[in-house]
Amino acid sequence: MRKLLLFSTVLLVGIIFIARLFYLQIYNQTAYNLFEDNAIRKVYDYPKRGYVYDRNGILLVANQPSYDVMVIPREVEPLDTLEFCELLKITKEDFTRLYDKAYHYSPRLPSVFVPQLSKKDYAILQEKMRKFEGFYIQKRSLRDYQTSIGANVLGDIGEVNNAIIAKQPYYKMGDLIGKQGVEISYEEELRGVKGIKFIQKDRFNRNIGPYKDGIYDTLPQPGKDITITIDSKLQEYGELLMKHKRGGIIAIEPSSGEILTMISSPTYNPNLLVGRNRSKNFTKLYLDTLAKPLYDRGLQAMYPPGSPFKVINALIGLQEGVVTPRDRFTCNHGYSYGNRKMGCHGHSGISDMDIGIYKSCNSYFANVYRRIMDKYETPAQGMDVWSNHVKSFGLGDYLGYDLRIGQPGKIPDASTYDRAYGKNRWYTTFTLSNAIGQGEVLTTPIQLANMAAAIGNRGYFYTPHIIKKIENDTIDSKYLTRHNTTIDKVHFEPVIQGMFDVYNKGTAQTLQVPGIEICGKTGTAENFTKIDGVKTQLTDHSIFVAFAPKDDPKIAIAVFVENGYWGSRFAGRIASLMIEKYLKGTISRTDMENWILTHSLENEYSKPYSGKPFQINGHTTLQVIENYRDNPD
User: Average of pLDDT values for 255-279?
Assistant: First the structure.
């Protein structure tokens, strides 16, 4: 009986083992087991990355072949390190560092050893690769920029890091991923899907052919081509006008929310971030802390909006019923309150809404602002009503556009002042600078352009976006959704007339473009910083917002030039030229164009701080400082 029990036990265990082996080797052929099998080599086949076109079908980004030297550390045999390093143009120390990095990632999985060989280096190395066991060459594609413009729009691609791999298992060490611009925003559409080949190895670790005749191999799925909303000709022209200046330009098509141009200056050639020199060039751009070429001023820079913000206060005043277009206020070179006075840039006399807008009268808008606040029982109630109106134009918010970077700006509400002064311990006069776009109000250029689009549309806007079309796909429906402001349509006409008169008899009358009815608003934003602990005013920023034509506008634009003195000096000229370039395709105001192209602000930026030397305690401060947006206190 014992012999039978022992025999049965051995037989049962044997059957279990045979059944399990049959299941693992014959029945269960899942991809998971293939990836875990050390006797099978996995070779990825990288897809063609999707092309990028501008709104007019001009090719902006294509691909070029690239060759990566791959390594599987556990398969590396003794080799002539000196010869290999010479072929790869690296040092022996580099070899050791790269090998250790690959081994640390995985001794049995392939990883990139040296990326992005040139065609010449690839041709030389390919003939000798048989001498270097454990290494092989993998072909993939890099970006090939067909243009030198739009670096902040197009972005770039670079290698994934460990954090990305941990979050997204699709990526492996050495894979490329979008890093900035549309490359990161539309990474999933552009990248495609990798294919894979399974290669059977023998007991000597030699390749003997496709595993199972390649029945588990997959072909790569190419990335989708995309069309972006940018007009590359307008983008190129805008970058030319902004040469030797710092700031941002955003232009939007009001009827759709499509971004026509998105300029940040200074900029750089996107081809600098392609190939083996990408890391070195990126480091140089990153360390340029004065010019900040990697800092997208159109999306990230928060500035006081200055006088363009006055039109929002005019609209709120009309909506709240505290002012009519015919109401008039007296300006005595400014607005006095208590023992303080808000100056008015030399303007004086009696102003109605039209005059207040086209002459940019601070006193007029201080009166309107106070009426809005005084309509309610407490300043806090008035402030919250005012804040909600302002935010309905997309200010104080990220806007929801399809780019990964940006700033929300700042629109204060009652809680802002409660925190600063204590609840019920502040009054309307504490916040009066908000009437003229100073004080606690901060905006980005894209927010101001969107504001101009909403005004041109008489009360609504579409979320600004950079995508126009995706191959065989549709864009997100949120970009087709109309957003209404809290201002009734009837109130926009007197404000638009005032903006039209800015060009006809106001602060921008010298900037008229023949044949185009432009509505605009100049702005001069005060610029402060702290020097030796003292709040000091620097050279003002130049701001301009506009839309054209007056009826059924085709373009809305915001231009911001750092330390550009006043609104019409730099920003106004640039805005008028950009509008004419887009609507007509040619420039008639060559006098204005020549002025912009021949006037630089480099001397302004090279000073320790912008403006005349400022004496503090009898000496001149020589330290380099950041401007007000980085040090608002």
Answer: 92
Measure Cα distances from 161 to 10, 138, 139, 194, 241 in Å: 51, 19, 20, 18, 38
DSSP-assigned beta bridge partners for residue 207: 201
pLDDT digits (tens, 9 = 90+) for 175-226: 889 999 999 999 999 999 999 888 887 766 677 778 887 888 889 999 999 9
Looking at residue 337, what is its pLDDT? Answer: 79
Average pLDDT (333-354) is: 80
Residue type (1 letter), 512: Q
Q: What's the token pair of residue 527?
A: 């610029």
As a whole-number percent, the residues of the chain with pLDDT over 70 amount to: 90
User: Which positions ≥6 away from 501 have C-beta within 8 Å?
Assistant: 354, 357, 358
Task: State residue 617's pLDDT score.
Answer: 34
In contact, 576 and 513? CB cutoff 8 Å: yes
- CATH 3.30.1390 for the 65-140 domain, yes or no: yes
Angle between helices 571-584 and 590-598 (to 10 degrees): 130
- Select 232-267+297-620's CATH number: 1.20.1090.10, 1.20.1250.20, 3.40.710.10, 3.40.190.10: 3.40.710.10
Amino acid (one-letter) located at 221: Q
In sign, the C-alpha dihedral spanning 295, 299, 305, 308 is positive
* Residue 148: strand pairing partners: none
Is residue 496 scored above 70 in pLDDT? yes
CB 485 within 8 A of CB 454: yes
Confidence band for 33, pLDDT divided at 50, 70 and 90: low
Residue 146: which region, alpha, beta or left (left: phi > 0; alpha: psi -120 to 50)?
Answer: alpha
C-beta atoms surrounding 65 within 10 Å: 13
Stretch(es) of the chain classified as CATH 3.40.710.10: 232-267+297-620
Query: Which residues, in sequence order, are CB contacts of 426 under 8 Å at separation 6+?
Result: 379, 417, 418, 420
In the chain, residues under CATH classification 3.30.1390 are 65-140
Which token pair is 391? 């935010």
1-15, 256-270, 436-450: least confidently modelled range: 1-15
Indicate the SS3 state at residue 132: coil
Q: Are 262 and 399 within 8 A, CB to CB? A: no
Q: Is 612 exposed, middle or buried (0-12, 13-18, 19+ CB in 10 A)?
A: exposed
